[in-house]
Design a protein that fits this description.
Layout (H helix, E strand, L loop, with lengths): L35 H6 L9 H4 L5 H4 L1 E4 L3 E5 L9 E5 L11 H22 L3 E5 L16 E6 L7 H5 L8 H11 L7
Antiparallel strand pairs: 1-2, 2-3, 3-5, 4-5
Amino acid sequence: MTDGLPAGSEGVDARPADSFAAVPDAFQRLWTPHRMAYIKSGGQPPKEECPFCIAPTLSDEDALIVARGAHAFVLLNLFPYNSGHLLVCPYRHVALYDDATEAEIDEIGRLTQTSMRVIREVSRNDGFNIGMNQGRVAGAGIAEHLHQHVVPRWATDANFFPIIAQTKALPQLLGDVRRSLADAWPTPREA
């Protein structure tokens, strides 16, 4: 420590906040520096690029993939409703559930069940929202590629942010969530 400051903080203005020029207000601040990566990237890829087709070509860490199967894979939602919000997608670029093959449907179902077990083990959640939005009119953000949502829910996960500020407070960084779920994912023999 130097002058009462932690090592590496030389040149940092560590005066108490009330000594700066500012007009206090009644608002609390929710600092979300991890969102800067999204802001700097410009958001989602261009519409001609399907993020669910691109994801399997990347490393698991870069694509936030938790598990890979033969016909489908599991990844974190970049815009989660809650921490641990997973998406189960077929590798094949297919839009609707009734266009999926029997093998894809079977594996999506098995990966959804495993997702629930792993989330419950890691997060101790109280319930789930599971579903598919088929078509843009039904609310699908990426309507061109089939994906099933697996959203963990807790009795205490609701707050006022989504209602008055259209903001969702997420307590964990996506990379940390991916790591904890991938580490807890069973090997094929355990599943």
